[in-house]
Write the structure tokens for this entry.
Amino acid sequence: MNFLVTALKDIFVQGRGYEWGMGPGMMGGGYGIGWFGPIIMIAFWIAVIVGIVFLIRWLVLSTRATGHKAASEDSALEILKRRYARGEIGKEEFEEKKRDLLS
């Protein structure tokens, strides 16, 4: 218990050399950043947001590109099945073209 009281006294006594709420390292008070700090922070967050937008755009475009490829393969196979069902092509030609489409 004495240790806790001593630690709390040390914490409160160390802060007495500064005005209320101000210490070394507050805005412009010791690190030399001054008014540059907020500008750097804003630039950082703009860069993060732009990076997220480009990442989402890239993901959407890459997903869309692979989706079109799969859809065109399915539609070609569907057309082939319809032609076979109508009797426009025979079974041998259907199997040959199906193998070509799936490979």
Q: What stands out?
A: The chain is about 75% helix and 0% strand. The chain has a mean pLDDT of 77.
